[in-house]
Each structure stands twice: as C-alpha cells, then as structure tokens.
Amino acid sequence: MNSYPAPRYTPSIDGLTLAAILFMALIGLVLVDDLFAPQPGAAKAKEVTLGQPAIELVVAEPTVVAETTVVDEEVGSGQGNPSKSAGDGAFAAPYKKYTITQGLHGFSYGHAAIDIAAGQGAKILSPINGEVTELYIDQYGNPTLVIENDIYRVTMMHGEYTVNVGDQVKLGQKVGRESNLGYTTDMSGQLCAGRNCGYHTHLNVFDKRIGDNSNPLELID
Ligand SMILES: [Zn+2]
Fold first, then answer.
1. Centre of ligand 1 from the C-alpha of residue 43, in Å
2. Ligand 1 center to residue 211 CA distance, Å?
C-alpha cells in the first residue's frame, strides 16, 4: 500500500511536466510573437490595401482609352464610304441629298467647278479625308474653304464654314452650312447675297496626280 504511490508519481509527473512545459513554452512563444507581430504586420497590411486600388485604377484608365480609340476607328471607317479605310482617293458629294444647279463653269476663278445645292442651311460635308489648308474671303467676297490630301485639293465657296485651317476632317464630316454668301446671283443675274436666293456650294476639285482640275460630276456620280 505504502510503496506504490511513490514510484508511480516520479515517472508520470516527470513526463507530464516535460510535455506541459514544452507545450506552454510553445504557446508562450506564439503569444509573444503575436504581441510583437501585429504592429508591423498591420502597417504592412494597410500599405497593401492602399496599393491595390491604386493599381486597379491605373490599369482601368488605359482600358477606357483603348475602347475610345476603337470606337473612333469604327466611326471613321463607317463614314468612310466604300473605299473603307481613310484612303486619300475616297471622294463623296458635299451633301447627302443634292441637285446640280450648274455644270462645269468657274473659269473666271481660274478653275473648273460645278454648283451643287441642298437648300439653305443644309449641312456641308467634307468630300474627302484631308486637312483644312485655307479659309478666306476672296476678292469677290466669297467665303472660300480648301480641304486637301495627297491626291485632291477641294475648293468650296459661298458657305458658312465652321472648321479652321489645320483641322483634320474625315469624308462626310460636317464643315459648314449652305449659304449664298459672296458672288451668287438669281436667274436674272441679280446678286443674292443678303436676299433669299442663290443658296449653293461652288465645288472645284483639283487632282494632284494629273496636275489638273477634275470634273466633280464624274467623282460624285
Ligand atoms: Zn459656281
């Protein structure tokens, strides 16, 4: 009776105590780590959290720019008529609907041109993909707009033009509205400027490839 408690205590206490001490020490180390870790750890976590949205915004911006660019190209090629891309040889009438009010004339201006009309205030459209190179009032009082590219030099007169020298314009883009400004006359030869008559666009097309005027009627079909 007296003998068995003593021998049993010694080994069992030693084993449990060692295991318990090791276990407590491990927990103690983890707790100590946790006590020190949170401060630098939290600071790092905040930096990461702030950094991530900033990166996402940077990534998002070029994506939007890319979409806008694509839309522009689609609109441009859509307006660019059968010849599809912004080919310099593309040509179209300066109005969606129009009537030819005078055949080839204009030799007093030093060129050959036609008169084309769609009605007072009608949108005047660029016949080519090009650049506005001149905008002035000539000696007859005609507002004169020149748009050109590597192939064509297009001169239009009498309109209220809304573009400026240096503007890049696409075929079909609005460049002004039809008017009767400058030297326009009615059927009896009376000046129409300031009167309700003579609204049209005087249209000349110079073909740089042949170094001569083109007949606009052949270009617009
Ligand atoms: Zn004319």
1. 77
2. 21
Between CA 10 and CA 16 the distance in angstroms is 10
Distance 109 CA to ligand 1 centre (A): 9
Strand partners, 161: 176
Residues 6+ apart with CB under 8 A from 161: 124, 135, 143, 145, 175, 176
pLDDT for 168 equals 98
What is the pTM for the complete model shown? 0.61
**pLDDT tens digits for range 101-134:** 999 999 888 899 999 999 999 999 999 999 999 9
33 alpha carbon – ligand 1 mean position (Å): 92
| Ligand 1 centroid to residue 206 C-alpha, Å | 15
Q: Which string of DSSP letters, residue by residue, matches 155-187? A: EEESSEE---TT-EE-TT-EEEE----SS-B-T
Pairing mode, strands 123-125 and 174-177 = antiparallel
Rounded distance from Cα 209 to ligand 1 centre (Å): 24
140, 183 contact by CB (below 8 A) = yes
In angstroms, what is the span from residue 205 Cα to ligand 1's centroid? Answer: 12
Output the pLDDT for position 129.
98
Confidence of residue 29 (pLDDT cuts 50, 70, 90): low
Distance of CA 220 to the CA centre of its chain: 28
